[in-house]
Amino acid sequence: MRTGFFSSLIFALFTSTALAATAATAAPIAKDLEPAPTVIEASLQASTAKVDLNSADAPTLQRELTGVGEAKAKAIVMYRETNGPFSSVDELLEVKGIGKAILDKNREKLEVN
Question: 109 exposed, middle or buried (CB, 10 Å; 0-12, 13-18, 19+)?
Answer without folding.
Answer: middle
